Amino acid sequence: MRLIRLIRQEIPQNLRSLAIMTALSALSTSMLLWVVDLAAKDAAKGQMSVRLLVLFAITITLFGVTHNYVLVTASQDVEGLIHRLRVRLFDAVRRADLVTVERVGRAALHGALTQDTQTLARTLPMLVIGGQQATMLIFLALYLAWLSPLACVMAFGFAGFSVALRFSRMAALGPQMRAAMGAEMAVFDGLTDLLRGFKEVRMSVRRADGVVADAARASDSARRVNTAMKALWGQEFALLQALFYVLVGLMVFVVPLFTTKYYEVVVPATMAALFIVGPVGTLAHVTPLVTQTEFALANIESMAALLSTAAGDAPDENARALDRPPSRIALRDAVFSYTDAAGNPVFSVGPLSAEFHAGEITFVTGGNGSGKSTMLRLLTGLMPIKGGALLADGEPVEPERMQSYRDQISAIFSDYHLSRRLYGVADPDPARARALLERLEMQDKASVQDGAFSTVALSTGQRKRLALVVAQMEDKPVIVLDEWAADQDPHFRRVFYEELLPEMKAKGKIVICVTHDDRWFGMADRVYHMNEGRIEVGRIGPEPGGAA
Ligand SMILES: Nc1ncnc2c1ncn2[C@@H]1O[C@H](COP(=O)(O)OP(=O)(O)OP(=O)(O)O)[C@@H](O)[C@H]1O
User: What pTM was computed for the model?
Assistant: First the structure.
């Protein structure tokens, strides 16, 4: 069972003390019952025993202390466990290659990282309580057996029947629960469409209707499954309550048929039966959560396995460093294919051979879908090439050095994400940040304070300028810009091609730009033109006629 394995692996340190305290708490409950029974008998004789009162106080204190210890310690351990699971998943995501993350899908990853870990956060503490109540029931069973074996068999026969009934009904709901999880995921997908595509939704009634109808359909199917489960829960809750009253009836009406000791057996047995109602109710509620927890764990594990299987036996990409910053990077006969879910290639690039030199500007051009971004993904080591080689200074970049290789590259991809915090810059120098913001004409819009931009709520072109500030501050030997200028105004586009790129070149950087701006093709020292996943034309040396 995943749950037990996880608990033993992740939180072994307090298991023994938790078990002892749980037993003590259960023991104190049985003692409480015994003391109450004795006190009731005294009361029937018109007496009150100080000794019993003291014993009662001690028992209550013992119960309070141990109960509190179990709940607090277990919830601390459980939260620690969830935190470690999450961090491990974050880590698996950061180590996964881009193809895998795109194939697994952001919604599924999001689901595992939020929904499933939240399920654990909700169910695990309940299971701890369930464990405690189960222990309590064992002690109550012993007490009842000591009073009357028949009462014990009847009470626990009922209890076992109640829990088994609920468990079997919930287990039968397994496929529906899976369907509900799928439906919740679809709801999340729909919400993402609605929020990410908010402008498009606002612009068209037809689109809005379609997006909302899909999300509503998903939500409706989640509603149906959840309603069915809750209806079942309601029926069982009512049935369980009725069964408990039947149990009390059995104690009062049936047990006396087999004993003459009414006060010694029937009264305390009835009282004990009342004491077991709470724990059995909790157990009946909690037991099905085991299935939910197992689902969530299975999902988290399968996500982690997917991410790590994709990495397979691949060596640790961070194991070794490059010997020096590269002054030349290249693809040699590199090939790669995107595949569909069945593994069939849907688009192939290559064989690609291209070189990129320090102190040179290289443009990559070509029509939409010709494979430019794919080539950049291969060149930057984001996706593993399936044949040929990726070279740094003429040497193949070994998989163990891939992270070190990537760390030599600042890249702004067309679908880049700008964080407010300058994560990639160790200790952002405010003076340098100011100078760069001025160079990019952004000094009136944003500043860098405490390692973060004052704002990223800016226009698309402005955000791209901030991304270039980050790339310049990272000051790496290779800079890759995928259609960076596409969102810039004519003035700044000129600044970019005629001033910024030459400045980077003068600093000796390997400058690589994907561009459609044929007006400035002459600025490049090399141009690779792509078509249908291949390099069609490679020009080396300045174009006759030069810049505009
Ligand atoms: N994640 C993906 N999964 C499957 N196929 C993809 C994926 N990304 C791109 N492709 C395929 O690869 C082809 C090349 O895409 P790529 O993004 O490299 O083109 P591009 O030249 O950069 O285009 P654009 O100028 O429009 O940005 C596309 O035609 C598309 O069919």
Answer: 0.68
